[in-house]
Amino acid sequence: MGSRDQRLAALQVAVEAILTRYRVQGLLTVRYTERVREHPLRRYGSRPATVQVARDLGVKAVVDRPAVATAIGRLGWRVYATNAPAEQLSLAQAVLAYRSQYLWRVTWAG
Questions:
Q1: HSE (CB half, 13 Å, CA atoms) of 15?
Q2: Which end of the chain has a smaller Cβ tally under 10 Å, C or N?
Q3: Backbone dihedral region of 51: left (phi > 0), alpha (psi from -120 to 50 degrees) or beta?
Q4: Higher confidence at residue 103 or residue 9?
């Protein structure tokens, strides 16, 4: 494995660690780029003319909006409302009966 391959592998490991740390795997599309610059060096004394090559690796991350929307939808936030007084329907009874109640889904956008 060459130096470039090792640097790219190290960069990919670092990016994966960041994605894992912030729990955003699958929510971003990550692209790796390499920029190659060649700089000619003129002959000097007994040294022949050469070309110096510089390579820069980069990372570009783009938010995958459909994946984010799906993840937000899976957060499980639900709002339940009733017009029954607490004397007739306790919280415990409401929790037990929530599946047969009308569900009004609220989407939290951020």
A1: 18
A2: C
A3: beta
A4: 9
Cβ density class 66-85: b for 16+ within 10 Å, e for less: eeeeeeeeeeeeeeeeeeee
**Contact 28/64 with Cβ under 8 angstroms?**
yes
pLDDT at 42 over 70: yes
Whether residue 30 contacts residue 22, with contact meaning beta carbons closer than 8 Å, is answered with no
Rg, the chain, Cα only: 28
pLDDT per residue over 53-83, tens digit each? Answer: 998 999 999 999 999 988 888 887 666 677 8
Contacting residues for 31 by C-beta, under 8 A, at least 6 apart? 59, 60, 61, 62
Nearest residue to 16 via CA among 7, 28, 1, 5: 28
